[in-house]
Amino acid sequence: MRPFPWKEAMGFGLGVLRLPPDAFWRMSPRELAAAWGAVVGERAGSMDRQGLEAMMERFPDGR
Question: Does the residue 1 lie in any domain?
Answer without folding.
Answer: no
